[in-house]
Amino acid sequence: MIRHAKQSDLPNILEIYNDAILNTTAVYTYKPQTLASRETWFENKLNKQEPVLVYDERGEAIAFATYGTFRDWPAYQYSIEHSIYVNKHHRGKGIASQLLAEIIQTARNNGYRTLVAGIDATNDYSIYLHKKI
């Protein structure tokens, strides 16, 4: 089930994100985040009214998706950059596809017309996911 993230989801979101930092090319930083930094990130998302959606399986957030400002120039006011991360033990189940569909619909509902995904050339999962739409 897809739902809006809660504060209590942040430890799982942190675990998923840090795994992406350490073991993939999906995130262009090399230093794992702290729970405090994820709490600040989440608060900023809420303040900017940028969604953080989670895929909930039996009460546990096993994936998340979000979007934010693409570029802070007036011509990009209808453009956002989105991100999707899935727990490594739950990949290949169609969860990312469901989150992508939901984040696209959420963006449309909020008046956005262009979604951008920054994908590393070696991130085969993300390339495949985005080619399907």
From TrEMBL:
Q: Which domain of life is it from?
A: Bacteria
The UniProt GO MF terms for this protein read:
acyltransferase activity, transferring groups other than amino-acyl groups
Classification via PROSITE patterns: GNAT
Kindly give the CDD domains that the UniProt entry links to this protein.
Answer: NAT_SF
* Keywords tagged on the record: Acyltransferase, Transferase
The cross-references to InterPro entries, in alphabetical order and at most eight, read: Acyl_CoA_acyltransferase, GNAT_dom
Keyword presence, Transferase: yes
Q: Note the Pfam families from the entry.
A: Acetyltransf_1 (PF00583)
Q: Its Enzyme Commission number? A: 2.3.1.-
Identify the residues that the record assigns to the N-acetyltransferase domain, covering every copy.
1-133
Q: Which PANTHER family match?
A: N-ACETYLTRANSFERASE, UPF0039 PROTEIN C11D3.02C
Quote the protein name from its UniProt record.
Answer: Acetyltransferase
UniProt source species: Staphylococcus gallinarum
Give the taxonomic lineage as stored in the record: Bacteria, Bacillati, Bacillota, Bacilli, Bacillales
Gene name in the database record: yncA
